[in-house]
Write the C-alpha cells for this entry.
Amino acid sequence: MESNLEKVIQMRIRRTMENLEKNGFKALYAPDSKSALALLSNLLVPGETIGVGGSVTLSQIGAMELIRDPKYRYFDRYDKSLSPEQLQELNHKAVMADTFLASSNAITESGVLYNVDGTGNRLCAFVYGPKRVIVVAGYNKIVPTMEDAIVRVKTVSAPANAVRLGMDTYCAKHGHCINAGLDRNNMVFPASGTCTSRLCTSAVVTGRSQGGRITVIIVGEELGY
C-alpha cells in the first residue's frame, strides 16, 4: 500500500478503535489476516461452545478451520449433511454459545456497529445470548457516519452477498438496493415492499457493549463485503 494512504487509513483505524473502547467494546488491531487468526486463537478457550454468523471475512482469515479443531465445541452451520430442521436447531444453540464469531457490515468512526441480516441469527447474538461476541472486520468496513453505514450495506454488502448466495434480488441484478436511489436522503431501512425477494429483513445498531461483552478485531486488510 502507498505510504501516505496507509497513514490516513491507520489514523481512521486508531480513531475508530478509540471510540469503540469509549463505547464499552474491547478493540484490538491485527495488521493482516495471519495475525488476526493468531489473535482470535488466543481469545478462544478449549472446550467452550462456539457459534458463527455467516461471514466471508471469517472464511478468508481461516477461522473456520481453526474452530473445527476437536478441542472446541463448534456448532457447524456449514455442515452439508444437516437437514433444514437440524440447521435451524443448530442456529438456536449457536446464539446461546459461550462465544459467537461474526463480522460486521459496517463500523462507524464513532465506534458503532451496524448489521443487517436475512434470518437474524447473527443479529440476535449482537443483542443478547452468547457470553461474548468476537467481531473480525477488515478496515474497509469502517465508515464515517451511520448514514454511510446504511449506504454501504445497500450498495456493497447486500448486493455482494446476494450474488454470493445466488439470490434473485434487485440488488444482485443491479448492484444496489431498489430503495437506495443512490440518494442519501432516501436511504430508508428496511427497503420498500417492492423488493419481493430480499436478503435484508432486519437491522441492528450496536452503540455500546455492556460489560465489554463484544470484542472487535480490526484487520489492516480489506476483507469481506
